[in-house]
Automatic annotation (TrEMBL), chain A:
Alphabetical list of CDD domains matching this protein: KAS_I_II
Keywords: Acyltransferase, Transferase
PROSITE patterns named among the record's database cross-references: KS3_2 (PS52004)
Protein name: 3-oxoacyl-[acyl-carrier-protein] synthase II
Annotated GO MF terms: 3-oxoacyl-[acyl-carrier-protein] synthase activity
TrEMBL record, chain B:
Keywords associated with the record: Transferase
Matching PANTHER family: 3-OXOACYL-[ACYL-CARRIER-PROTEIN] SYNTHASE, MITOCHONDRIAL, POLYKETIDE SYNTHASE-RELATED
Domain spans labelled Beta-ketoacyl synthase-like N-terminal: 9-210
Source species: Amycolatopsis magusensis
Entries under InterPro entries matching the protein: Beta-ketoacyl_synthase, Ketoacyl_synth_N, Thiolase-like
UniProt keyword annotation of ATP-binding present: no
Pfam families in the cross-refs: ketoacyl-synt (PF00109)
Protein name: 3-oxoacyl-(Acyl-carrier-protein) synthase
Length: 415, 366
């Protein structure tokens, strides 16, 4: 299926970044943490971990919703919606665009998620166990609908002329949301898009990965010979996208350009990644962006740190990029697996890597697995002049999404 | 290859409380049969409401056989069956690997029952990780879309959209965008909800007490393709001629719905006098008022609104409501004389303030 459209439409750029993560809130703090190779691994506190042997995770520990959520009562929102709403406020502030200007334009709000408000759903189960289903809290029940991850942003930022939806395509959902926004802006469906992903640590998902023997006992070591799996994490990454014309007209700072993206479905297995399916996704993304494999300077891997992911992903990368692929890093080594936020936070990492000229490291690395024959930039970030960066996302359901970002070199529109 | 032509709907199916396929659904809608009944006490224990709209006799293994269905949840089963029916209508051979067909599914939260069961097993088992591994894939919200792809070999873009009751219309718009960008040659676009105690109780508490109407379930699904790509032998049933969406900030939903519908009609250049049918999702505000139908009556008159029966016949299907109403429009429009009125309007409203509407030109030249 050729994906390079005959009509490329408008060029689309990133002009605002909003981050809520375990290693920092706000893009400056986040970028500094990535550059320093920081992590904030600690025992999970959001739910009771009694009885689990391994209990580490990557929680957002210093989050103050009232600092960012002013227009609506944050108590009405589930944990993931608080993250998405705060990150959207941060992205808008970072973009330099006024809330009034945004409200006057046509906007798309597209938020990816794996779990929606499953943390709240877990709590409803606890109530049911204690007092029967009649005893569930109406207030909690009203927080559940996953669509609220997007509509809460609209309500907080007072945006009425807006299309809102949450894309719940699991752990590649952030890339799906960015891709959807890219198409919406280049074809003129929207002037601005607030897009990305959000998820909150929850018992259901921790238990699921634990049962699949995928939770690491201590930390996440992608591509390492002794990797033991993922750590569940949480947070939100929201990007503000607009057309290049719009950004240059208002003199906005441009972090990077969205060059294109690809979607594919493995149609193979509900939870196992598939080499052919993800290689096809990378090829579709490259074709859509009009980029040759040799032009990619860095791959931000899905890089979960499980054996199944890392072996399959590196094999697929070598299928696509040959024997000498670009450097391949996993930001999950620092952030944990933030599920639906993962590819959005990584996209923000890609943007600042391009703008601030460095490659974030893959931390906790001792010895690269010889079966993962890549340079994963172990432990220490490196200075680098990046022109094109690829961001990978795979998900349960075989739902793959890859986005390509490019440095905006200041060339006039149409050149 | 991208296309700028408006997408059309050229096939559809529905598995619903009226029965397993399109024929049952169309017959139920045309006869305005109420398909809700007291839930079977042998199948459903301890649900909050007295009435439910369930697909008669539906269990995934009864429809799909034993292989691969042991751990399949209900929402996945409904979706896989709907896709099976629709692909059969399109004469796509079973198991054909198709990377040109996209799959877009709307949901509220996937299977609340599967998710809550897993948490419950973790909280009540001897050890917290003593949960059934086969149940894990059913606990993510995109389980049904992924299952449909695996069952039917659909390797094109596969996405799951959650937008409350406006989901179906947002999923249609997302499908339109995939086609416009050339990411798929055609898209199966649907929305699905399962009946379950978990969903019923969450809804019961969310609404703050006894339900005004029964909970319903099912999956409505449409083939969406570019108008200039419809092969000979397939009939265009409707063209997606416009859409609009917004979020109501001032709490006055009738104003938001009116503005959205008017703006959509203006942009499409279609006057209200050309609208043959208008239908909404029977959204009830906190005072129990049917907000959508009141607005649509004001805009289009009673005759246009009464043409298609309200969505309550099969119960409240949440995120699937709007696409079931579109299926109802197509059911009633089939073979009906419409004179010079050739459009239909479908609206959707969610209590989080989101509003969406879509405009369909009925029939077509092929």
């Amino acid at each position: 299926m050729p994906s390079q459209p005959a009509d490329p439409g408008r060029r689309v750029v990133i002009t605002g970044l909003g981050v809520v993560s375990s290693i920092g809130t706000g893009v400056a703090e986040f970028s500094a943490a990535l550059r320093a190779g920081r992590s904030n691994v600690r025992p999970i506190s959001v739910f009771d971990t009694t009885g689990f042997e391994h209990v580490n995770g990557c929680e957002v520990t210093d989050f103050e919703p009232e600092r960012w959520i002013r227009q609506i009562d944050f108590e009405e929102l589930g944990r993931a919606s608080r993250f998405s709403t705060a990150a959207a406020r941060l992205a808008l502030t970072d973009s330099g665009l006024s809330q009034e200007a945004l409200a006057e334009a046509r906007c798309l709000i597209s938020v990816g998620s794996t779990d929606g408000e499953s943390h709240e759903l877990d709590q409803l189960v606890s109530m049911e166990l204690h007092g029967g289903p009649e005893s569930m809290s109406p207030r909690l029940a009203r927080r559940i609908s996953a669509g609220r991850l997007a509509t809460s942003i609209a309500r907080e930022l007072e945006l009425s002329n807006v299309e809102t939806s949450t894309i719940v395509t699991a752990c590649s959902a952030g890339n799906y949301a960015i891709g959807n926004s890219f198409d919406a802006i280049r074809f003129g469906d929207a002037d601005y898009a607030l897009c990305g992903g959000a998820d909150a640590v929850c018992r259901k998902t921790f238990t699921s990965f634990y049962r699949l023997r995928s939770i690491a006992p201590d930390c996440c070591r992608p591509f390492d010979r002794n990797r033991m799996g993922i750590l569940t994490g949480e947070g939100a990454g929201i990007l503000l996208l607009e057309s290049l014309e719009s950004a240059t007209a208002r003199g906005a700072r441009i972090y990077a350009e969205v060059l294109g993206y690809g979607l594919s479905c493995d149609a193979h297995h509900p939870v196992a990644p598939h080499q052919g399916g993800i290689a096809r996704c990378m090829e579709l993304a490259l074709a859509n962006a009009g980029v040759k494999p040799g032009e990619v300077d860095l791959i931000s891997a899905h890089g979960t740190g499980t054996k199944a992911n890392d072996l399959t992903e590196t094999a697929a990368i070598r299928d696509t990029f040959g024997e000498r692929p670009p450097r391949v890093v996993s930001m999950k080594s620092m952030l944990g697996h933030t599920m639906g936020a993962a590819s959005a936070l990584a996209a923000i990492g890609c943007s600042v890597a391009i703008t601030d000229r460095f490659i974030p490291p893959t931390i906790n690395h001792v010895e690269t697995d010889p079966e993962c024959a890549i340079d994963c930039v172990p432990n220490t970030s490196v200075e680098a002049d990046l022109r094109i960066v690829q961001n990978n996302g795979w998900a349960f359901g075989g739902n793959n999404s890859v986005v390509l970002f490019g440095r905006y070199d200041g060339q006039a529109v149409g050149v | 290859m991208s296309t700028t032509t408006a997408p059309v709907i050229s096939a559809w199916t529905a598995i619903s409380p009226f029965g397993p396929d399109r024929v049952c659904f169309a017959e139920g809608v045309r006869s305005r049969r109420v398909a809700t009944a007291p839930p079977d006490p042998d199948r459903w224990s301890r649900v909050p409401e007295a009435m439910a709209g369930t697909v008669p006799g539906f269990e995934p293994r009864e429809y799909l056989g034993n292989k691969g269905t042991r751990a399949m949840n209900r929402v996945s089963g409904l979706t896989v069956v709907a896709a099976k029916n629709l692909l059969a209508d399109l004469e796509v051979p079973p198991g054909a690997a198709r990377d040109d067909i996209g799959f877009v599914l709307g949901t509220t939260t996937g299977s609340a029952q599967s998710m809550m069961n897993l948490t419950r097993a973790s909280l009540t088992g001897d050890k917290p990780d003593h949960v059934e591994p086969a149940a894990v894939p059913g606990c993510v919200m995109n389980c049904a879309a992924g299952q449909a792809a695996i069952w039917h070999g659909l390797k094109g873009p596969n996405a799951t959209i959650a937008a409350g009751r406006t989901t179906g219309l947002q999923a249609l718009d997302y499908s339109r965008r995939l086609l416009r960008a050339g990411r798929a040659a055609r898209v199966l676009c649907g929305a699905a909800e399962e009946y379950s105690p978990a969903r019923s109780w969450v809804e019961h508490h969310r609404r703050g007490g006894p339900a005004a109407r029964a909970m319903g379930e099912g999956c409505a699904m449409f083939l969406v393709e570019p108008a200039d790509q419809v092969p000979a032998g397939r009939t265009v049933l409707a063209t997606l001629a416009g859409s609009d969406s917004r979020v109501c900030l001032d709490g006055y939903l009738p104003g938001a719905i009116t503005a959205a519908v008017r703006s959509m009609l203006t942009r499409a250049g279609v006057g209200a006098h050309r609208v043959w049918a208008a239908t909404g999702g029977d959204f009830l505000d906190t005072n129990g008022n049917a907000v959508e139908s009141a607005v649509l009556r004001e805009l289009f008159g009673d005759e246009v609104v009464d043409r298609v029966p309200d969505s309550g016949l099969i119960g409240d299907t949440s995120s699937a409501t709007a696409l079931f109403q579109l299926a109802a429009v197509l059911s009633v429009a089939e073979g009906a004389g419409r004179g010079d009125r050739d459009h239909a309007v479908v609206t959707a409203v969610d209590d989080d303030g989101s509003v969406a509407c879509a405009l369909f030109e009925l029939g077509g030249s092929r």
